[in-house]
Amino acid sequence: MRRFESKGGESTGHLVEWQHIGKVDSENSKYQKALKEAQIEEAKKTGKSGEYMRFRTAMELARQFSPYDPTNPDKPFARDIRIAFQDLLESAGALKEEDRDLVRFFTAVGTPLDKFHGVDGWLEYLDPKDRKRYFATFDFTKNPNKQVYKSDIMVMEQDLPDRTLETKNYLEKIEEYAKEALKKIVARQVQEQKIVLDRQIK
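^ thats the sequence. predicted structure below, dont judge the formating
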């Protein structure tokens, strides 16, 4: 795995989720406007009023208001997991160097995707063949007793080594998460292909 890109002055160690992957500026007026519009549309489609938002709608809202370039996140975990995932794809011959921007990381902290679906962030791969997005979701927690989670991958803060003091162990853990994400994304690709095949047969 390529060494992570160090950024001077960035705090390390046991960090809260927004320090690992950033957070959407939910106080931003444009975000608030888009949130209300999305909630109104959801109410029309579901017949239910309130703040609840379906998964895909919530994901698109978080995507629209990413606080950083998802192809070059400025937060440590987001940046490092993206690099590790790229490395896995490249070593398998599934990603060309010029296509690295097809791998992206988004934060959902502070959005309906976080509130209603337990997703703090997600790693995304845009398949160059079918141009479809495939993803693996992450949930960060400091609670060692947490048993139930909705995301694909749980990141226990105490299981993540110090990025500066335990670099080797940290990178190995990041690669472990990247491999989990790859399994989830491949499973979604297989399921998508099965659905398409079933439709063709019918």
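Confidence is low (pLDDT under 50) at residues 2-15.
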